[in-house]
Amino acid sequence: MMFQKLQRFLIPAAALVALFLGYRHYGWPGVALVGGGLIMWQLLHFTRMLQVLKRAADRPIGHVDSAVMLHAKLRAGVPLLHVVAMTRSLGQLESPKDTQPERYRWSDTSASSVLCVFAGGKLQSWDLQRPAQDDAVAESDRAAPAASAS
Could you tell me which of 44, 43, 21, 45 has the C-alpha nearest to residue 31? Predict the structure, then answer.
């Protein structure tokens, strides 16, 4: 968390230092070269964001192929854009709009779902919720082979 707050200042400071060093060593052509590199870096991030959103636009909101697999892949501190890229779907907003923390849900066809909590755009916690009927079916499946073996 501390690194994320520090990152807000380190990246612009590093860009300014790179621009200064470019000017110091190569003059205005150095500034143009460093500035062009910084603009290219921003364009790459923007293009990636558009690709993720384009893929997510083709799928229903809040749908994921497997909620269990999504639950296994998540880790704290991952940005919302990364989770959208993993699921290839926008999450179903569960919290009131424009409030922190934000809660999004992704569900699969078996009614299992993952509720993700994002604070400041970063994943804080997540919870896998499975339907109750799956537990009863799983217990009967375990009991059936034991009964047929006797």
Answer: 21
